[in-house]
Amino acid sequence: MEAGGLTWTAPPVWEAQHARPMRVATYKIAPAKGDSDAAELAIFYFGAGQGGAVDANVARWLGQFQKADGAPVTDKDARTKKETVNGLPLTTVDVKGTYTGGGPMMGPSTPKPGYRLMGAIVEGPEGPVFFKLTGPERTVASGEKGFRKLLESVKKK
């Protein structure tokens, strides 16, 4: 796949989904043993200079989660990291809790406890590309190595 001047390779066991508005690609990760829901990797590219600042997007993703007591998740509850992959700036975020989504078209209609989000923003030559993996904690954990390999495969086209 490619977007924003970048290419990457998704794990072959991840099921590519049909095209959706605003998304470059969507992949389904089969439920892990004990989970009934699959996880989903949504990849977004909005164009050069679009999509907002990296830190604002990380904050927005954290805002889609609550702690068990209903309190908002903060950056202290998540793991974020800035690094470089194949010469490109990469910011990752990893958060667990109750997934509340990001609006009527961006998340579940009812809160989903026991969920996890692994997100990544790669700053490409034509703008940022957003990788957002969400689903039940065990299922996301089962896709963690594949997600990391996908991020390590990102390079300029």
Give an overview of the whole structure.
The chain has three helices and eleven strands; from the N terminus they run βββββαβββββααβ. It has helices spanning 54-62, 137-142, 144-153; strands at residues 2-3, 6-7, 15-16, 23-29, 39-45, 65-66, 79-85, 88-99, 112-124, 127-136, 155-156. It has a single domain, classed as Protein Transport Mog1p, Chain A, CATH 3.40.1000. A hairpin with a 2-residue loop joins strand 7 (79-85) and strand 8. The chain is an alpha+beta fold and 157 residues long. Strands 3, 4, 5, 6, 7, 8, 9 and 10 form an eight-stranded antiparallel β-sheet that branches. Strands 1-2-11 form a three-stranded antiparallel β-sheet, with no helix packed on it. It is globular, with a radius of gyration of 15 Å.
Judged by helices, strands and strand pairing, the structural class is: alpha+beta
Helicity level, as a percent range?
A: 10-25%
Strand content: 35-45%
CATH class assignment: Alpha Beta
**CATH homologous superfamily?**
Mog1/PsbP, alpha/beta/alpha sandwich
Terminal-residue CA separation: 10 Å
Mean pLDDT: 93
- E-strand count: 11
CATH level 3 topology = Protein Transport Mog1p, Chain A
Rg calculated over all Cα atoms: 15 Å
